[in-house]
Amino acid sequence: MNALTTASPPALLALIGGNEDRLTPGIVLRELVAACAASHAGGGPLRVVVLSTASGEPDLLWSQYEPAFRALGAVPAWLDPRDREAAGADDALQALRSADLLFMTGGDQERLLDVIGDTPLHALIRERHRTGELAIAGTSAGASALGAHMPVGDLNEQFAGPSQPLHAALGLMPTLVIDQHFAQRKRHARLLQLVSLDPRRTGVGIDEDTALIVRPGHDLRVVGAGAVTVIDGSRMTDRREPSSVIAFEQLGFFLLPSGTALRFNDPATPPHLQRLLRAIASPAPLIG
């Protein structure tokens, strides 16, 4: 057994950069369902709960995801709490208890956190994932919400004046800060700024129609049309003298194209990629 696995390893996690093909459906959703089905121990079809709280158009998204998941052999159900009371209601909790995969849609990550953060639904998500019972995927805002902190607003191309405050996320991937629509919206500087505010976290940026699929303690894969960018600030020095000049030294920058697959303890994986793998995919305690 891998030294990093436990008696009850956490379940699969998938980060999707947004705009994945959900009409065909395309490779991202196909690979997600296949990966979840491969580790599904309950028998029968995969049960997927689509959580659309982040979206301002939940009906539209459900009308797209419902047939997409059915076409892939899964059984989808819809969960759309719009306030914190609904996020603690018995029907919402029961829907989650019956799920094998929670799929969080795009929209506004602040809306998602305002509604479900620190609610009974949030607690149940974390507990069922920690014990290996519930796989979790997020696309766009749903992906950013899975990290320790999350980007907010529309800052894209460059640093925007003074540092912005860190916004707490759901903490399912507590070693990461996650951004999406990455190459398409030129969010490299935004992610760099977020890493500079908390260098303990590894920055992960995911292109559109692309997914980072992680099995904690086992492996990670990149699938889809684009790539995943990783910024490691753990050894970074931050020099700002004179104050108008920003200099980050000893910063790690990785580009993982589609098709990348890294496995723990694989002798073919060089040490610097093993360190990257551990930063992203090691089972980790929740960090406050």
Explain how this protein is built.
It is a single chain. The protein is of the alpha/beta class and 288 residues long. Helix content is 27%, strand content 26%. The protein is built from 8 helices and 16 strands. It has helices at residues 27-38, 58-71, 90-97, 109-116, 120-130, 141-144, 188-197, 271-281; strands spanning 13-16, 47-51, 75-79, 101-104, 135-139, 147-150, 167-168, 173-180, 202-206, 210-215, 219-224, 227-232, 237-239, 247-249, 252-257, 261-263. It has an 8-stranded mixed β-sheet with strand order 3-2-4-5-1-10-11-16, with helices on both faces. Strands 7-6-8-9-12-15 form a 6-stranded mixed β-sheet, with helices on both faces. Helix 3 (90-97) packs parallel to helix 5. The radius of gyration is 18 Å and the shape is globular. The two termini are 30 Å apart.
List keywords for this structure.
288 residues; alpha/beta; eight-stranded mixed beta sheet; six-stranded mixed beta sheet; 26% strand
**Coarse shape:** globular
Secondary structure tally, helices: 8
Order of helices and strands: EHEHEHEHHEHEEEHEEEEEEEEH
What proportion strand? 25-35%
Q: Give me the count of strands.
A: 16
If you average the pLDDT, what whole number results?
91
- Please bin the fraction of helical residues: 25-40%
Q: Could you give the distance between the termini?
A: 30 Å
**Radius of gyration computed on alpha carbons:** 18 Å
Largest sheet: 8 strands, mixed
Q: Which structural category fits the helices and strands?
A: alpha/beta
Strand order of the largest sheet: 3-2-4-5-1-10-11-16
Low-confidence stretches: 1-6
Question: Assembly type of the shown chains?
Answer: single chain
